[in-house]
């Protein structure tokens, strides 16, 4: 099982906070996105975190991982 | 703890006083402290802003901010750093963020303090949503340089 | 008043809180505040320092510091600045100096704050005399860079 | 009348806080020093203020002025 989390404007656009999907061999963060959001491409400026560390769309993921997608950060 | 996430309004000067007392007591090891505080303004990009909501990624936020402090400590001769950041519903004139660095030397204190706020703005998972004068809402799309 | 000469120990965070409240109240005009505090250490140039006396030139000191603030305001987009400096007999871990700048922009706040402390160290008529571990006294001959 | 003030280590070395001297035509700060401290040259790194503004040893002074001499400043 892989947990996918969405934050901020992306969360509002998608209308959901998270997805749970089954894991498969050789998955990337992008694969997880595509499985959970069929037909919707990730925004160009999307940021990716795997297990709460920054990663990339082509970073590998596996069972038990938490993948997060969010827009550019605007804190401070 | 050198990273504090606050879900209610706080007095930045009181937080600094408490941290310094707790961390250093009557020790005279540091000579220089540099502090930045960021306060919510009531305008942005030409519009009145009545209120703001700050979303964050609990867990990742804290670990990112702790990494920033570790990074500042490895780059400059600083004794300790503090980062405080507000989340949730915020009103104008309330403090959003505090970064601070204690050092024996003022250049190290200034540079570490500024590094912390710049890196925080570019890397820490916080997102601002503004409520404008007409009650419409908008997400802040990106942070401004400088 | 943006220049304060203190002849007794003071809490820098309380002075900042009071000044900010008095100067800005609940206004949300500034977004960025940069602060430097200089604290008396218990060592200098390899020697233990037990106590210090800070002499100044009353009148000229205040006018020099007010000129520094005017100069910072003309060079950067800052709303206001504060300088606090201790004089007289001082013990380790007590605050010597505070410089602070309030601005809508963080780069202006940082640069003005740093300008104030650098210029103060080079131009404001203060002189430090240290009492060492063996009770001997020495005048600090010059400020160190950075 | 001209008031001359001394600060910090210079005050201690000279053993006095101030002098009062009569003014004369075309006086400089150095002239005031020399009149008040006969036979003692001012230290190389001396700083000079006239009426509480920085000046130089060759700056002109006149009746009623306050001239100050002091070592490099060490505040902050």
Describe, in plain words, how this protein is organized in 3D:
The complex is a heterotetramer, with two copies of chain A (76 residues) and two copies of chain B (146 residues). By secondary structure, chain A is of the alpha+beta class. Chain A has helices at residues 8-14, 29-36, and strands spanning 2-6, 18-21, 27-28, 47-50, 53-55, 60-61, 66-70. Chain A has a single domain (2-70), classed as Roll (Ubiquitin-like (UB roll)), CATH 3.10.20. Chain A is built from two helices and seven strands, in the order βαββαββββ. A five-stranded mixed β-sheet of chain A has the order 2-1-7-4-5. A two-stranded antiparallel sheet of chain A has the order 3-6. In chain A, a hairpin with a 2-residue loop joins strand 4 (47-50) and strand 5. The termini of chain A are far apart. In chain A, 33% of the residues are buried. The mean pLDDT of chain A is 97. With 146 residues, chain B is an alpha+beta fold. Chain B has a single domain (3-22, 33-136), classed as Aldehyde Oxidoreductase, domain 3. Chain B has three helices and nine strands. In chain B, a hairpin with a 4-residue loop joins strand 8 (126-132) and strand 9. The model of chain B has no long low-confidence stretch (mean pLDDT 95). The chains are: A alpha+beta (76), B alpha+beta (146). Chain A binds chain B through residues 5, 7-9, 12, 49, 52-54, 68, 70-76, and chain B through 38, 54-57, 59-60, 63, 85, 96-97, 117, 120-129, 139-143. Strand 2 of chain B pairs antiparallel with strand 2 of chain C, so a sheet runs across the interface.
